[in-house]
Structures are given as structure tokens and as C-alpha cells.
Design a protein that fits this description.
By secondary structure, this protein is mainly alpha-helical. 78% of the residues lie in helices and 0% in strands. It has helices at residues 9-42, 46-74, 76-93, 100-114, 117-128, 131-163, 165-173, 175-186, 198-204, 223-227, 230-259, 265-271, 274-295, 300-309, 319-323, 327-348, 351-355, 358-389, 393-414. α6 (131-163) runs antiparallel to α7. The chain is globular and about 60 Å long. It starts with 8 loop residues before the first helix and ends in a 7-residue tail after the last helix.
């Protein structure tokens, strides 16, 4: 029997990663959308809610470095399968939580599983896409974060209204097992994939200095050697300062709309997705811009930096939400912030593969994701305390400062963006 040959197979792989990320964000956002109901039912305050989400962020942060190393050893097919089983089971187990401790345990377990998503996605894109298409390929995956965040509010609000919050956790958690079937049917490495046409394989390997035919022959730096490089620390610090902007809206937007703007769960489901729709457009725009510039003959260094610096100016506009007279105007400012953030982070996430060889991308990405998580932990706990003692306004001010600091980390420590010897 003749083997199936699929044109543009790398794009199907990117779509698979996109779907995994959609599911990841639906599972992650379930507790955020349901926070007003769960806090009311269980008598939790904002500091306790922040602590529950922080347990997720702790495991999510630490295990991204762990997963980065495991991906470099065992490959994406096996490790991604393992990760999504853990996070799907953990998401479903939220239904049996009876209080603060139960939610903390299951959020911690969810964080372990979801920690495998980004190191696996970024490494897979680095394996399947040459540098000139890598940012756009990753933008497709990043759009999954936006679409998941768009789909989650109305879906979760509807499930809550129809069936209650316990059934909602079970339904959203089960989605990962459907994806797992597709992943095991479709995914293999380019070197092993029987569906991959010779022409596409040659195109994927066209960056000889980026992805050699025998990438396993490249020398590997040790963890200690990687941590001595200022480029690694530039990426880590950028994510440490930048990612809390995303988590601010991901975790706290429903509560903000409920507490400050007087929205009901139904209204949250109707409108809370708008900033995340803008973030999806930002992700695709950021991926397109740097890929377009590289395609026009501009250097990777120039193209990435332009696509990192420009959206930084948008990330300060959360300040406008403080003074916005209506909720919709506040959401408009927040939409500009998230458009800018996803534009920015889509290009920051490619830096590991811009600087390092394919067998180092997983570890560098894992460390960067851990830095992102540690920043999110610090900011999330701070938000809970500030909101209980003051208001959301100081939080939005801090969020506006973080974007420029994150970009400066890259510009100061990263130097010229090129493959390191």
C-alpha cells in the first residue's frame, strides 16, 4: 500500500499544537470564570483565591524547566502525551474539591501537566519550521491561547448556568483526551514521519546552521554553561517581568468585572472574551511582521527587535482602564494591552531557537517559562493583597510598568540576535 503523502504537513502539526493550547487555556480559565461563584459558595476571600492560583503557578513554573529537559531527552511525542493526560485528569478532579485545600492540590497538579505545553510547542515548532517561518508558526500556537481565552468565558458561563460548576470542570477537563487521540495518530518527528514529502523535508532543513539534517550531532551545553550566558538571562528576565501582564488579565479580569464594574456571571461570559480576541490578532500580527521582514531580506536581529519594541508601547495602556467611565471602555484599553502583549511574547518565545541549537531549545525554553511563572506568582499574590486592602488601580499601574522593563531586559542582555557558537 502506498504511503500517504501530505502537503504542508508542518501546518497541520502547528494546528495540533494550536488545539492543545486552546484546551490548555479553557482548563486554566475555568476557575477564573467561576471565581465569583466558587468564592461565594466556599467563603473565600481574594487572598485565598490568589493563593489557589499561586499553587498552580508554582508547579507550572518549576516543571517547565523539568519538562524542557525531558523534551530534549525523550522527544515531543511521548512527553506531550504524558503532559496532557496529567493536566486533563487534574482539571476534572477540581469537581470533587470541597474547599481551599482541595482546590490548591488540584491546581498544583494541573500546573504540573500544563507546564509541558509551551516547552513542547516551542520545541516542536523549532523542529518543523525554518527560522523564516518560525515566528509565524509559533503565532498559530499562541493564537490558541487567545482563542481558548475567547471561547472559555461563554462556554464556562453557559455550563455553569446549565449544570453547575462541578460538571463544568469535568466537561472542560475531558477535552484533552480527545486531542490525545489526534496527537498519537498524526504526530512524529520530521525525520521519522512517513507522511512528510521530500520537498517539505528539504525546506524544513533549509536553515543549515539552524536545523542540520543530523541535529543530534550538535554539541550540547550543560545546564551550568547555559546559565552563564547573558542571552539566557535576557530571555528569562524578559519573561519574568513581561508575563505577569498576561496573568493579570487571565486570572483577575472576571473578578475585576464582577467587583468593580458590577457584571454578573452571564455578562462576564458575554464580554470578558473581548481582550483575548484582540490578543489573538496580536499574536498573528507579531508572527507575521517578523516573518515578513525576514522574508524581505532583513536580519533576524532587526526583525525580532522591531517586533518586540513596537508592541511595548501598547502594553502601558492598561492605565486607561483606571479612568475609563464605562466597563466597555475599560475593556477597550485592556484589549490594546493584550494585543500588544501577544504581539510581543510571540517574538520573545522564538529567541531560544534564534540563539541556540535545536537540542538546547527545550532547556532554554523551560527556564524562560519558569522565569515567566515566577514573575506571575510574585505579581498574583501581590494583586490579592492589594485588591483586598486598596483597589485594582495600583495593580494596573504596576502592570503598565512591567512591559518596558521586560523589553529592556532583552535589549540590554540579549545583544545581537544570532545563533551562538
Amino acid at each position: 500500500m502506498k504511503t500517504i503523502q501530505v502537503s504542508g504537513l508542518r501546518w497541520y502539526i502547528a494546528v495540533l499544537l494550536f488545539l492543545a493550547t486552546v484546551i490548555c487555556y479553557i482548563d486554566r480559565l475555568t476557575i477564573s470564570i467561576l471565581a465569583p461563584v466558587i468564592k461565594s459558595d466556599l467563603g473565600l476571600n481574594n487572598v485565598q483565591y490568589a493563593a489557589i492560583t499561586t499553587w498552580f503557578l508554582i508547579s507550572y513554573s518549576l516543571f517547565q524547566t523539568v519538562f524542557g529537559g525531558i523534551y530534549d531527552i525523550y522527544g515531543t511525542r511521548k512527553v506531550f502525551s504524558f503532559a496532557i493526560v496529567i493536566w486533563s485528569l487534574s482539571a476534572m478532579m477540581h469537581a470533587v474539591a470541597r474547599g481551599f485545600s482541595g482546590f490548591a492540590v488540584y491546581r498544583f497538579a494541573l500546573g504540573i501537566g500544563e507546564a509541558g505545553n509551551w516547552p513542547g510547542s516551542i520545541k516542536t515548532i523549532a523542529e518543523w519550521f525554518p527560522a523564516k517561518q518560525r515566528a509565524f508558526g509559533l503565532s498559530i500556537v499562541n493564537t490558541g491561547a487567545a482563542l481558548g481565552s475567547v471561547v472559555a468565558p461563554p462556554l464556562i458561563a453557559w455550563l455553569q448556568i446549565q449544570y453547575g460548576w462541578k460538571t463544568t470542570f469535568i466537561a472542560t477537563g475531558a477535552l484533552g483526551f480527545v486531542w490525545l487521540i489526534l496527537w498519537l495518530l498524526v504526530y512524529h518527528k520530521p525525520s521519522d514521519h512517513k507522511w512528510l514529502k521530500k520537498e517539505e523535508k528539504a525546506f524544513i532543513e533549509s536553515d543549515i546552521t539552524d536545523i542540520p539534517v543530523s541535529s543530534e550531532l550538535l554539541p550540547k551545553r550543560s545546564w551550568k554553561e547555559l546559565l552563564k550566558l547573558r542571552q539566557v538571562w535576557g530571555i528569562i528576565l524578559a519573561r519574568f517581568f513581561g508575563d505577569p501582564i498576561w496573568w493579570l488579565y487571565l486570572i483577575w479580569l472576571p473578578s475585576y468585572l464582577f467587583d468593580v464594574r458590577g457584571y454578573s456571571i452571564k455578562e462576564i461570559g458575554t464580554f470578558a472574551w473581548l481582550p483575548f480576541l484582540a490578543s489573538g490578532v496580536g499574536s498573528l500580527s507579531g508572527g507575521w511582521l517578523s516573518s515578513y521582514l525576514i522574508g524581505k531580506g532583513k536580519s533576524v536581529n532587526f526583525s525580532r527587535k522591531i517586533a518586540i519594541i513596537l508592541p511595548t508601547f501598547l502594553m502601558v495602556l492598561g492605565l486607561g482602564a483606571i479612568y475609563a467611565p464605562t466597563a466597555m471602555q475599560a475593556l477597550a484599553f485592556m484589549s490594546l494591552v493584550l494585543f500588544g502583549f501577544q504581539f510581543w511574547v510571540n517574538n520573545v518565545q522564538t529567541l531560544a531557537s534564534d540563539y541556540f541549537s535545536i537540542n538546547e531549545v527545550g532547556r532554554v525554553t523551560g527556564m524562560a517559562q519558569t522565569g515567566a511563572g515566577l514573575g506571575a506568582i510574585t505579581f498574583t499574590m501581590l494583586i490579592g493583597w492589594i485588591v483586598d486592602h486598596f483597589s485594582y488601580s495600583p495593580v494596573l499601574v504596576i502592570g503598565a510598568i512591567l512591559g518596558p522593563v521586560a523589553t529592556l531586559s532583552i535589549l540590554v542582555l540579549g545583544g545581537k540576535i544570532r545563533k551562538l557558537k
